[in-house]
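stuck on this:

***
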Amino acid sequence: MKILVTGALGMLGQDLCPTLEDNGHEVIETDIQNMNITDREQCEKFVLEKAPDFIIHLAAYTNVDKAEDEPEKAELINAKGTENVARAAIKADIPIIAISTDYVFDGTKNSPYLPDDKTNPKSVYGKTKYEGEKFIVENCKKYYIARTSWLYGIHGKNFVDTMLKLKDKDLKVVDDQTGTPTWTVDLSEALVKLFDKPYGIYHLSGGGEPTSWYNFAKTIFEYANLKVNLSPCTSEEYPQKANRPKYSVMDNGGMLRDWRLALKEYLKLTDI
């Protein structure tokens, strides 16, 4: 297939595009330089000219805390931008996969979220991502929503690398937010598997036992054989602008492996 990828230069895009090519697909890489998703007319024209068989929509405003100060910009990119890409897919009569987030949930559940569970986003980021989801569900016949969480990868700023850079400092990490980390390579491989699945909403986050950010950090240092002065703290002790779900574990239906296995493999690629 010929697959158009938005946000191809981002952390996920730089792992997804080669994964698609390894699976025999032709990839049309796009980013703001050649396809501005906030410009509906330009977006539709580009898609129709390139005539892809499929769109994977990664482009997004992802700075969760900054979104609280820039709600209009987050809305423009995550909601309106997604709408524009979806409209182009409708016009071209092709399927779309749109990446979404655990932030569409409020975090009050105490068992893994299922794809059809009620959404209730509590941050600007979560609300704008949900608006994008909602447009696709209500208007597209051929769609996949792929929600993920706690994403890290070799091509972008992420929690794993931040912890490794701070290994010589006294660290306090939040211990009352629970989820599952997801490596961009594992997510990329799961996205390829969606091509053979029925249309709908999927949860594509790391598998295995849920963890807190503190225990995630502890596991990183353990696997990297590093002794670090690390201690837990509460969300209240580490205030952030955006409201984060306390529990954002999602049932991935076995589509991604245990996050610990992925982390071990990722750490082999890092310069510890």
Summary: The helical segments are 13-22, 40-50, 71-92, 124-139, 159-165, 184-193, 213-223, 259-267. The chain has a mean pLDDT of 96.
